Every structure is written in structure tokens, then in C-alpha cells.
């Protein structure tokens, strides 16, 4: 939609007094990088979240948004499938579990980062590590013994879980874990 707008028109929209207009501009995948760069500094966190969620946000803007004071901006960066692995590595250290949760779910998260997140204190983070197809088999082996059944369910549902682990999880005490094994595409 915005591809036919001139730079001057986009500048007007990026400076609109209504944050709703700026937010819509930030979320729009046709918004050019120069405008996204300006909107990444907006005083309203909802606008910055839009930039973080935009599939065309350049990597250098993601790098800036990693340090945003609003946890929601950081988790939007973490969940964006175009976020570079190096940025996800930095976000894996975030103090907010919501951010680490989305890093664990992101398809660009490198195996080394997932291995570190497999030790996270929050089970929802470990569950998403267990479900991520990039998680190495030795990490899945460790998570298959996790005390939380949702984490074990994540291992059972991961299409890359080795058959030996699935055979063991088929005898798990928890119904949901066993059901995950039955639903796994490789069983």
C-alpha cells in the first residue's frame, strides 16, 4: 500500500499525532526501512512493537530494539522469524521469560542457544526448546527426563526426536506425553 507514497507523505504519516496511524505504519510490511528506522525511536512502545514485528525490519534495527526498555518490544523482536541468529543469541539472556520463550520458539535460533535455554528456570522456555526442530538430539535426550510433563510433551511432539527417545516416552507416566508420542509424525 505504501509503495506509491512519496518520502514526504511517509514522513507525514510517521509524524502523525495519532499513535494509531504511526503504529499501523510500523506494522505494515510495505513500509520502507528508512521510515521503520524513524519509527523504531517512537516514544510510544506500541509503535516500536510494530517495527519489531515487521517482516521487513532490517537487522540493524533489531539490534537496537534488543535494548528497548519495554519487554514487549523485545519479545516482538524475539518472535519475528526474520530476526538474525546473533540477535536471538543476545535475547536469550533477557531477564523476562516471555522474551526467552519466543527465542526458544524462533526457527532462526541456533542449536547452541537452544542448548543453553534448555537449562532455563522457567518450564515454558524449556518446553519450547523441546519443540524447536533445531534442538540437537542430545538436548532432546536431556529434556526427555525433565520433571515437567509439558517439557517432555514438547520432546514427544518434536519431529526430530530420535525414535529411541520416543520409545522411552511411550511408557511415560503422563497421558499427555504418551499422546504426544502417538501424534509424532515419525511414529
Please provide a written account of the structure.
By secondary structure, the protein is an all-alpha fold. 60% of the residues lie in helices and 0% in strands. The protein is built from 14 helices and no strands. It has helices spanning 7-14, 19-27, 33-39, 45-53, 59-65, 71-79, 85-91, 97-105, 111-117, 123-131, 137-143, 149-157, 163-169, 175-183. Helix 4 packs parallel to helix 6 (71-79).
Give the end-to-end Cα distance, rounded to a whole number of Å: 46 Å
- Got a strand count? 0
Strand content: under 5%
Percent range of helical residues? 55-70%
What is the radius of gyration computed over CA atoms, rounded to a whole number of angstroms? 20 Å
Count up the helices.
14
Helix-and-strand structural type: mainly alpha
Largest sheet: none
Rough outline: elongated
Average pLDDT confidence is: 93
Q: Segments where pLDDT lies below 50 for 5+ residues?
A: none
SSE topology string: HHHHHHHHHHHHHH
Concise synopsis of the structure shown:
With 187 residues, this protein is mainly α.
Topology:
Blueprint: H1 7-14, H2 19-27, H3 33-39, H4 45-53, H5 59-65, H6 71-79, H7 85-91, H8 97-105, H9 111-117, H10 123-131, H11 137-143, H12 149-157, H13 163-169, H14 175-183
Give descriptors for this structure.
single chain, 187 residues, mainly alpha, 14 helices, 60% helix, 0% strand, elongated
Amino acid at each position: 500500500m505504501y509503495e506509491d507514497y512519496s518520502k514526504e507523505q511517509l514522513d507525514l504519516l510517521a509524524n502523525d499525532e495519532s499513535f494509531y496511524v504511526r503504529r499501523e505504519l510500523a506494522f505494515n510490511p510495505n513500509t520502507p526501512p528508512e521510515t521503520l528506522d524513524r519509527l523504531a525511536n517512537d516514544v510510544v512502545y506500541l509503535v516500536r512493537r510494530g517495527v519489531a514485528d515487521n517482516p521487513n525490519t532490517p537487522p540493524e534495527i533489531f539490534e537496537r530494539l534488543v535494548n528497548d526498555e519495554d519487554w514487549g518490544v523485545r519479545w516482538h523482536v524475539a518472535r519475528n522469524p526474520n530476526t538474525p541468529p546473533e540477535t536471538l543469541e543476545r535475547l536469550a539472556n533477557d531477564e523476562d521469560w516471555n522474551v526467552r520463550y519466543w527465542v526458544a520458539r524462533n526457527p532462526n535460533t541456533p542449536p547452541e542457544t537452544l542448548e543453553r535455554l534448555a537449562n532455563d528456570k522457567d518450564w515454558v522456555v524449556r518446553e519450547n526448546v523441546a519443540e524447536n526442530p533445531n534442538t540437537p538430539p542430545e538436548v532432546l535426550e536431556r529434556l526427555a527426563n525433565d520433571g515437567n510433563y509439558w517439557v517432555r510433551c514438547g520432546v514427544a511432539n518434536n519431529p526430530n526426536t530420535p525414535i529411541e527417545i520416543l520409545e522411552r516416552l511411550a511408557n511415560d507416566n503422563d497421558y499427555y506425553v504418551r499422546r504426544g508420542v502417538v501424534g509424532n509424525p515419525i511414529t
